[in-house]
Amino acid sequence: xxxxxxxxxxxxxxxxxxxxxxxxxxxxxxxxxxxxxxxxxxxxxxxxxxxxxxxxxxxxxxxxxxxxxxxxxxxxxxxxxxxxxxxxxxxxxxxxxxxxxxxxxxxxxxxxxxxxxxxxxxxxxxxxxxxxxxxxxxxxxxxxxxxxxxxxxxxxxxxxxxxxxxxxxxxxxxxxxxxxxxxxxxxxxxxxxxxxxxxxxxxxxxxxxxxxxxxxxxxxxxxxxxxxxxxxxxxxxxxxxxxxxxxxxxxxxxxxxxxxxxxxxxxxxxxxxxxxxxxxxxxxxxxxxxxxxxxxxxxxxxxxxxxxxxxxxxxxxxxxxxxxxxxxxxxxxxxxxxxxxxxxxxxxxxxxxxxxxxxxxxxxxxxxxxxxxxxxxxxxxxxxxxxxxxxxxxxxxxxxxxxxxxxxxxxxxxxxxxxxx
Length: 421
Prior knowledge:
One of its GO terms (molecular function) is kinase activity. Keywords: ATP-binding, Carbohydrate metabolism, Kinase, Nucleotide-binding, Transferase. Catalyzes the ATP-dependent phosphorylation of 3-oxo-tetronate to 3-oxo-tetronate 4-phosphate. This is 3-oxo-tetronate kinase. Residues 252-413 form the Four-carbon acid sugar kinase nucleotide binding domain. This protein has 2 domains: 6-225, Putative sugar-binding, N-terminal domain (Rossmann fold, 3-Layer(aba) Sandwich), CATH 3.40.50.10840; 252-418, Four-carbon acid sugar kinase, nucleotide binding domain (Molybdenum Cofactor Biosythetic Enzyme, Chain A). Helix 2 (62-79) crosses helix 3, helix 9 packs across helix 10 (331-351) and helix 10 (331-351) crosses helix 11 (362-372). Strand 13 (275-277), helix 8 (286-303) and strand 14 (311-314) form a beta-alpha-beta unit. The chain is globular. It has helices at 13-25, 62-79, 100-111, 159-164, 195-204, 216-225, 260-270, 286-303, 319-329, 331-351, 362-372, 412-418, and strands spanning 6-10, 30-34, 50-54, 83-87, 116-119, 127-130, 133-136, 139-140, 171-174, 187-190, 210-213, 252-255, 275-277, 311-314, 356-360, 376-384, 387-392, 399-403. The strands form 2 sheets. The protein has a 15-stranded mixed sheet, sandwiched between helices. A 3-stranded antiparallel sheet has the order 6-7-8, with no helix packed on it. By secondary structure, the protein is α/β, with parallel strands linked by helices.
């Protein structure tokens, strides 16, 4: 059964751009939407080979996550998709309460899919699965930096056990080439230690209407099921090209991620460029913190040559400050206050002429995109595996790099600026 168009649902915004980037690699024309589009928000979608709907459903109530995902599915079906991919993080970010299993089950029920494969592996980024256990750069997930994630701490590397807590269906694990385990599970965690394993997994799913996984398997599945390929991989403008129309300021980095990778990237960037560390543990309001940050930006630009100084604003670089905010406000309220600050900063930067932003962190990316009113983007140059530059579709053109906290090497922020459109 061959496909013509692929409809994708991602459970967060950075994961969606990660997925879109992998599909663009294979020569597909991809449009990414933030939230389920209204009838008047479908510019460019008709010509796409794949459409990715980005949701903020990873850490919300499971019932609401399923409802949003089914609405996205209905939209993708109306667009013309005949195969569907549910994308979650390659570190299987969730809790014992959801939402990966619940959303996958909801989509499967709607599509009449009896058996489901779960393929989170992303070997290129060091995420491998062996005997149903997830490893991050060779370290068990439960011993990696993800063990202390503020919203979705991952303290169990056994994905069979993690998924089984989220679904009434029996869960097993299998090699992509050989069935293992006993009984007859209908939900399978698929091992992948290299890209050949991912290709083999897509052979298993070649007749499936629905596949779930991390972004790395999506391009291989698109090839296996014959998704339309209407363009060559993008020949993008070289570094140093003209900035987006109306841009009068340099690139600004907004880093809300507390991940070890983002902290390392921020520390290296700070050795050469100014950085502001937000502290949300005190009594200052989010509005006043944002005003102070915007004033700080203006002061640095006024002192730099032609206002060209790139800047970093971070909330997660100091573990002690993050912990103090969590102790004062609680995990959810501390996160909400921080995202409110970033939303105000992002809109303030846009109003001051900033048209390029690098956003680190899935929750922060979702907040910033929503604050800026960006509803859809075209996918551009890949900065690092799973992280492309994207260009907004609409009246005010914005160039954004939406980075999952764990992605990218130590020089990611420098690489992003050097390749910025």
